[in-house]
């Protein structure tokens, strides 16, 4: 049953309570880009979970890129699919972090954006944790930003919430 806002005279039912009681579930995000290059998860370890309460979607994603992961090419911004369509786009619907573990201290904060109603994109929002600047650490994340990704040694984690389409 799709969510319907409470109206005068409605009664509490198990079905209505289930709609407002979040139940976490898995989803497999689809990884694309804003252009023609195609990344590939390969043997990445992916944990993507989401829950819905009324029209609010909560999500958390943890991706450890594997030895067979390919990151696309050039400056085509990475996109991951949402678990359900959003009510609209947003310049901020979450936060997270990225790291290339082959480069100590390279963990960086990111901001999650909804650039379409069905895709997340990721924007650099700070420097490395050891307070050093990165030469390419600005803008949306892609195959070359904030730097070269290392298959088997990099990860992307993010979490947040957004309004689902009615």
Q: How does this structure look, described?
A:
By secondary structure, this protein is mostly beta strands. Helices cover 4% and strands 38% of the residues. The protein contains one helix and nine strands. The protein has a nine-stranded antiparallel sheet with strand order 1-3-4-9-6-7-8-5-2, with no helix packed on it. The radius of gyration is 18 Å and the shape is elongated. The two termini are 12 Å apart. The relative contact order is 0.22. The model has no long low-confidence stretch (mean pLDDT 86).
Which outline best applies? Answer: elongated
Mean pLDDT: 86
Helix content: under 10%
What is the chain-wise order of helices and strands?
Answer: HEEEEEEEEE
**Unreliable residue stretches:** none
Strand percentage: 35-45%
Main beta sheet: strand number and arrangement?
Answer: 9 strands, antiparallel
Number of helices: 1
Instruction: Record the strand order, biggest sheet.
Output: 1-3-4-9-6-7-8-5-2
Instruction: State the distance separating the first and last CA atoms.
Output: 12 Å
Which structural class do the helices and strands define?
A: mainly beta
How many E-type strands?
9
Gyration radius (Cα, Å) is 18 Å
Can you lay out the helices and strands and say which pair or pack?
Elements: H1 14-20, E1 25-26, E2 31-33, E3 45-53, E4 56-64, E5 78-81, E6 90-100, E7 108-116, E8 119-124, E9 154-163
Antiparallel strand pairs: 1-3, 2-5, 3-4, 4-9, 5-8, 6-7, 6-9, 7-8
